[in-house]
């Protein structure tokens, strides 16, 4: 009989936690026993898994004894508080927060890019930022063929990136505006999101970039083992419920044509090329929602360069899946293979 595992999910009632439960089920991960953990206010709630109702337990020290894989999506402070404890108790922690991403003792993994790094873990493996993961699934296959020197990226980030409350806020504000109500409740996001967008995702740093924007450079370098890679990002929150999009400009070491890039990406794992502008086919968040693959299109030569070393592409990917829950489950799959 093939081996099965006890899996624990910390932050099980959040948007990513719910996706983790569904992803384990849909991908037939060999779960012997599923345990769900959350804060006090969610204890006792029941969530469905394989036809059963699983009761949510309190996330606390000692809760992970006997657990093989602990998938964490309860925020950085909870991860810092409980992840080492879970690892000490024998669980392999796959953490979705920013807590350990840049820790040199913790591998930062996108399975389509650096699966071998999974095996360097000392009890904790980090999931990258959602936008970084979505971008690298598409960009890395090109980089392997022709090293990328510089990336300029602008994001169009859905409300889902800020959690379930932000998704609800988008819906409620939109309904209020359509009813003519001017007095909108702004709580989960820093600005009104209905019929608006704003260039702030996460807190601003002294260099004028936000934390989210700096994650692109820092995390991409670590995952791709490319310490010299230059990345400049502008992150924008848009009134889309779910799935992030990114306009990416790439500078290569040697010339690369759009058709060459299309050919490489057509064979890349986790990628679907949707690139037929004449028939209005290109990546859109509405199509990427609920999909495991990231969509790429609008692949074209950068006309601002005469050396043929620039390409422009457009990507859409589900932030809750490839950007979070799916990536975590894929890491566990690499470890059990």
Describe this structure in words.
A hairpin with an 8-residue loop joins strand 12 and strand 13 (310-317). With 337 residues, the chain is α/β, with parallel strands linked by helices. The chain has two domains: 5-127 and 324-336, Rossmann fold; 132-318, Dihydrodipicolinate Reductase, domain 2, CATH 3.30.360. The mean pLDDT is 97. Helix content is 29%, strand content 24%. Helix 1 (15-26) crosses helix 8 (321-336), helix 3 runs parallel beside helix 5 and helix 3 crosses helix 8.
What is the H-and-E element order? EHEEEEHEEHEHHEEHEHEEH
As a percent range, the share of helical residues equals: 25-40%
- Average of pLDDT: 97
Number of domains: 2
The N- and C-terminal alpha carbons lie at a distance of: 15 Å
CATH superfamily of the largest domain: Dihydrodipicolinate Reductase, domain 2
Per CATH, what is the topology of the largest domain? Dihydrodipicolinate Reductase, domain 2
Physical arrangement of strands within the biggest beta sheet? 3-4-2-1-5-6-7
Rough shape? globular
For the sheet with most strands, the description reads: 7 strands, mixed
Low-confidence stretches: none
- The secondary structure category is alpha/beta
CATH class (first level) name of the largest domain: Alpha Beta
The second-level CATH architecture of the largest domain is 2-Layer Sandwich
Radius of gyration: 20 Å
Q: Beta-strand percentage?
A: 15-25%
Please report the total strand number as a whole number. 13
Number of helices: 8
């Amino acid at each position: 009989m093939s081996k099965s595992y006890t899996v624990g999910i910390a932050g099980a009632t959040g948007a990513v936690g719910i996706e983790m439960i569904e992803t384990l089920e849909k991908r037939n991960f060999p779960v012997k026993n599923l345990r769900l953990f959350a804060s006090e206010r969610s204890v006792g709630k029941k969530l469905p898994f394989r036809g059963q109702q699983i009761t949510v337990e309190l996330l606390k020290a000692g809760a992970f004894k006997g657990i093989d894989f602990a998938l964490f999506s309860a925020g950085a402070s909870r991860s810092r508080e409980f992840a080492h404890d879970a690892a000490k108790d024998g669980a392999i922690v796959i953490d979705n927060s920013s807590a350990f991403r840049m820790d040199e003792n913790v591998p930062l993994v996108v399975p389509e890019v650096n699966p071998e790094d999974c095996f360097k873990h000392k009890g904790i493996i980090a999931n990258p930022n959602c936008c970084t993961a979505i971008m690298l699934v598409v960009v890395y296959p090109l980089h392997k063929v022709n090293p990328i020197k510089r990336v300029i990226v602008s994001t169009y980030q859905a409300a889902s990136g800020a959690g379930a409350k932000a998704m609800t806020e988008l819906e409620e504000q939109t309904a209020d505006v359509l009813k003519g109500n001017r007095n909108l409740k702004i709580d989960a996001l820093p600005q009104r999101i209905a019929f608006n967008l704003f260039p702030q995702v996460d807190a601003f740093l002294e260099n004028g970039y936000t934390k989210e924007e700096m994650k692109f450079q820092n995390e991409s370098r670590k995952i791709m083992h490319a310490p010299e890679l230059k990345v400049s990002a502008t992150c924008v929150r848009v009134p889309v419920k779910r799935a992030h999009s990114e306009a990416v400009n790439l500078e290569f070491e040697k010339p690369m044509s759009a058709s060459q890039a299309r050919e490489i990406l057509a064979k890349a794992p986790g990628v679907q090329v949707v690139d037929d502008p004449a028939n209005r086919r290109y990546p859109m968040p509405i199509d990427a929602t609920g999909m495991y693959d990231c969509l790429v299109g609008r692949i074209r030569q950068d006309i601002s360069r005469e050396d043929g070393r620039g390409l422009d592409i457009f990507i859409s990917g589900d932030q809750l899946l490839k950007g979070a829950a799916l990536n975590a489950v894929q890491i566990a799959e690499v470890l059990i293979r």
